[in-house]
Every structure is written in C-alpha cells, then in structure tokens.
Specification:
By secondary structure, the chain is an alpha+beta fold. Helices cover about 35% and strands about 30% of the residues.
C-alpha cells in the first residue's frame, strides 16, 4: 500500500522538506499536540511535559546543529516532524500531529529519514523510542536492544526502548 492511500480521501497532497528556522515554533506546537494525544495512554502528564521541555529547550539549537530536521506539510500546515543525526544514524525524533496520526505521515517521514541516512552512508538507524511507538517501529523493521531505560537528560523518569534498524543498500 502506498503512503498516500492511507491519507483521507480529498486530503491535500503531502510534501516533505527540510525544516526552516522559522518552522521551530510550529514544530514545538506539533510536538506538544502529538505527545498529548499519542502518548496519553503510556505516559502521565509530568512525563509528557518532561519530554516536551527537552525538545523545547534544544530545538532552536538543533535546527542549526548536527541534526537534519524534516517536516511533512499538507495544505501549508505542518503535520509531522523528524530529526536525524546523519553522522551517526541517531533518529532523534519523529512526531506526527494529533489529528494526522495513523494516516501514513509517520511512514512517509521514516522513509525520508531512511533515505537521508543511506545517502550519508549510515549502516543503521537507532533511537530511544517512546513506548507507545514501539509497534510502529517494529513493523518498520526496528529491533529492541534490551528493556526499557530512562530517557537520557529528562528530569523525570520517562521509560523508552532503544531500537535499531540495519539499513540495506
């Protein structure tokens, strides 16, 4: 099934592009909505806020730093965002706005990140995946490294699962 087939009939076409510095505020609002909706059954309010504040305190710097930040847009609206460190294959983030979760946006962003990683000659992708997204990443070919760990740098205990995916040519 193609990614676009998952989007609602009549939905504007989706495009993926590099984020611009002026997108950072919209990305942070998107992350906040994605956490509130997608993580509500796995993490409590304090944990979700801790994750959000981690991104809010560093996203401006990361947008200019080692991470490549991509966004998905539909009808001029940001509906997803993702980050990768192409030097290491670290998948830093992948968020889909609350109203667009389950519609193929995450798959499209992950495909774009995998393409960027392969172009940078990364052997694998890895990241600390939120527990609510483990199934999504498993279906995409990621494997867990072990059991849940606390999210690094978070002031509150936020369990995540480190996962890897080997990239073929």
């Amino acid at each position: 099934m193609k990614q676009r087939e998952l989007l609602p009939v009549g939905a504007p076409p989706m495009s993926i592009r590099f984020a611009r510095f002026e997108d950072v505020s919209a990305i942070l609002r998107l992350i906040e909505r994605a956490l509130a909706h997608g993580c509500r059954d796995v993490y409590d309010e304090r944990q979700r806020r801790s994750v959000y504040l981690g991104y809010a305190s560093s996203l401006f710097i990361e947008a200019l730093g080692p991470f490549e930040t991509l966004v998905a847009e539909m009808g001029g609206r940001l509906v997803g965002a993702t980050q990768i460190d192409p030097r290491t294959g670290l998948l830093r983030a992948l968020f889909v706005d609350a109203g667009f979760q389950g519609q193929g946006v995450g798959h499209a962003l992950l495909a774009a990140i995998e393409s960027r990683a392969r172009a940078a000659h990364c052997q694998r992708l890895c990241g600390a995946m939120s527990l609510n997204a483990v199934g999504f990443y498993r279906r995409a070919g990621f494997r867990a490294r072990g059991g849940p760990e606390g999210l690094r740098g978070a002031p509150t205990w936020v369990p995540v699962l480190w996962m890897d995916k080997l990239l073929g040519k």
